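Supplementary Note 3. Input sequence used for the single-chain structure prediction.
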Amino acid sequence: MSGPGEEEYADSALRPYVITKGRSRPTRNTISIETLLVAISPPRALPVSATREERALVRMCERLLSVVEAAAHLELPVSLVKVLASDLVDSGHLAARSGVPKAAMSDPQLLQEVLDGLRRLR
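The predicted structure, written as discrete structure tokens, is reproduced below.
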């Protein structure tokens, strides 16, 4: 049940400001939209001052989740989720993992040639 004016609060520019404690940039410049987040195991209790968005993000990250996916689930801007994720990594509640570098990705042509070679061995 929502009180009077809560809908206005949810749609205002003040809400993101409050969620990020007034910051617009993450403390880590290594957090990007494709960064993968996972909750630390065993889980650490969040402080009582943690926002509902921080609590939801940690719960979501019990399974590996990208920043952009988390933003979609939370229905928040990616820039805001980057700030939250950075704070939670700093506090030891989440771990951040970078995605697979493009240089390490398999070349489809090379994989096809390997497959063709294996088929010729039969």
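Strands lie at 36-39, 65-66, 94-97. The chain is about 45% helix and 10% strand.
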